[in-house]
Structure formats: C-alpha cells, structure tokens
Amino acid sequence: MPATQHRRRSPDDAPRPWLKRVGWMVLIWVASVAALGVAALLLRLLMRLAGMHS
Prior knowledge:
Elements: H1 18-49
C-alpha cells in the first residue's frame, strides 16, 4: 500500500480566484472598521449624556 494516497480533484475543488479571496478580506476589513466606528459613536453619545463634553 502506498504511503500517500492521491485523490482526483473534482471541479468543485478548483481553487477560487484570488480576486474573490481578496474581496472577502476587504469586505471583512470594512465591516470591522465600521463596527469600531459605531462603537466609538455610541461611547461618545453615552459620554455626552453623562455630561462629559468639552
């Protein structure tokens, strides 16, 4: 029995285009930056409501 077994690649196993992978990374980055922005705005609002404004 061979030490390594190779299986044939089906069309579903084809590597994704690099542009699609980079697109997902950019989408995740934009979503995380937007989430941080929303959190910062909420903190500013809470601080202003508590009377901590300049």
